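We modelled the chain as a single entity of 220 amino acids. Its sequence is:
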Amino acid sequence: MSVEERLNDVLSRIRNAEGGANRASGSVSLVAVSKTFDAEVIRPVIDAGQRIFGENRVQEAQGKWPALRAAGTSDIELHLIGPLQSNKAADAVALFDVIETIDREKIARAVAAEIVRQDKPVRLYVQVNTGLEPQKAGIAPDETIAFVALCRETIGIPIEGLMCIPPADENPGTHFALLAKLAARCGLTKLSMGMSGDFEVAVQFGATSVRVGSAIFGTR
């Protein structure tokens, strides 16, 4: 299949999953994960109508997205879905519309300062390490509610939702259910969860956005 056909297949599967979960059509948005792919591979997906993309690394995104946007696709919504270092906060706020990986106070404060300095609204999610995996970023589940409160009430940034990446060898539904429970307790309505192998399960558990890369772009 072409990249356009794969995109349409993923969108169809999302809509079918919405219907199977008795959710409104269009309630789940697709974040096309374009990390490691260059502009020539991404452009046909843009031409096919996709407007929301996810990148893992600030520097890599800086190398391709300003030119893609300048080529007439200024309505792109770009998500940072990889770990953020505090020394990249200025670049991240300048480039991204959504940062999904706020996971510690230092990052939250750095991003908050840059939002004020640049006078640029950026939507923010807290990443939760639902599997407590030492190699993964994200705040521990039992610290999430207090951390969201810290971000909102003390640091003053408007956390919009939660994000997670379940362990590869465990049932993702357990982790999606935990994230949904935490979001409800925080009064959050946005859930970024589900990737190429499990996004339909994520829709069943309330995902409002799914992050799909290889099912659209192919293997890296």
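As a brief sanity check on the tokenised model: The CA atoms of residues 10 and 215 lie 7 Å apart. Residues 3-20 form the longest helix (18 residues).
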